[in-house]
Amino acid sequence: MSRTFLEFERPIGELMAKVDELRELESRSEIDIAGEIVRLEEEVRQVTGRIFAKLTPWQKTHLSRHPDRPFTTDYLGLVFRDFVELHGDRTFGDDRAVIGGLARLDDRNVMVIGQEKGRGTKEKVLRNFGMPSPEGYRKALRLMKLAEKFSLPIICLVDTPGAYPGKGAEERGQAEAIARLLKTMIQLTVPVISVVIGEGGSGGALALGLGNRVLMMQYATYSVISPEGCASILWKDAAKAEVAAGAMRITAEEILELKVIDAIVREPLGGAHRHPEEAARLLREALIHHLQELMGKPGEVLTRERYEKFLAMGMVQEA
Known about the structure:
With 319 residues, this protein is α/β, with parallel strands linked by helices. The chain has helices spanning 10-28, 34-52, 57-64, 72-78, 120-126, 134-149, 167-171, 174-187, 202-206, 227-234, 241-248, 252-257, 276-295, 299-311; strands spanning 81-85, 98-105, 108-115, 154-160, 192-201, 213-217, 221-223, 263-265.
């Protein structure tokens, strides 16, 4: 269970600290305070429910970036089993911001590809803070073609602030790598399910987002640019990020209303970072449900439905 509390979670943290104190006291004395502990635990649930019932888009943005939120590597162990990682793009190198390989979901073999931010300074640097370079997207492309060759469903876990904008990435063809991956994804003849598990930022997220089913975790966000970036462009002031978050419609409920995603994966009370095992169970159930719906469809139908799905997004008004 996470012990990192955001500003708006402080009342929850204070109550949980009192529960911990009482449990410690109970373990060191013969005083029966079990009833008081139960009462406080119920108060924690009630306060959490009230706070999370009225979260703003900006608060949900912070939740999507929560340092204790489950990442791809966490879900690989909690949702899937027998994961075997596959490395490299066979062109330049192995981008550790993208992790992928073979795994089993329930009783079915699948290819899992996700973006990984990393925890702790050392791992964050290794994973480039979840910002893939061209070789990461080319690795994903290679694994998708491999999955298609062996008729394996593809599960994509999206969690990135965006593709890496550095000079080296641009020199090695960042835009071309993303574009080629998008072209390949839309043409795949196997089922593809994409899930935004945390922060879905810009084209770096969309590169793994062209699924037959696109899902979002309840407190994830999905946007063409970060609220800070939007505020810097529109108002020349990143401090207006909260205003931008409210205007951009980046939360799961808003994205579902826009029909950009197909379903929301509910999170436990207090968010996935508070109860990662329960969050993983809910995600696993959602993946199995949607995969069962897709598995009986012929390849050409999957391709056509995926193409028509994204072609129908948005509205065009001719002058």
